[in-house]
Amino acid sequence: MSFLTSVKTTVMKGEVEKYIEAVRAWEATSDMNGYFAQTGERCFCFTGVFKDKDSLVEARPQMIAHLDSVRDLLEEISADLGVTDPVSGNIVSKVGY
To answer: Strand pairing partners for 3?
Structure first.
């Protein structure tokens, strides 16, 4: 079963273009289909779709390294979450086209 992870972020004022460029330049793992959306003026959501949970686990170090490279561009969401609000889980259904 396919597995996905989604991460919400808020970018600091004046850093949106730099953040977008950094995400576009990221050499993501070939085992992932990634989608990057701007959901507000400075808010973004990244979703990665993997063939299974093991593929996500294997890709985590690379995703964390990328996050570390842009962490200084992101606002803290909360003391508990830090600069990202991540969720992951099994894909239970494809909806739409």
So the answer is: 50, 90
Closest CA to 43 of 5, 7, 88, 4: 7
pLDDT values of the chain reduced to their tens digit, one per residue, 97 residues: 799 999 999 999 999 999 999 999 998 777 889 999 999 999 999 999 999 999 999 999 999 999 999 999 999 999 999 999 999 999 999 888 7
Q: For residues 89 and 92, what is the distance between their CA atoms, to the nearest angstrom?
A: 9
Burial class (CB in 10 A: 0-12, 13-18, 19+), 55: middle
Q: What is the pTM of this model?
A: 0.88
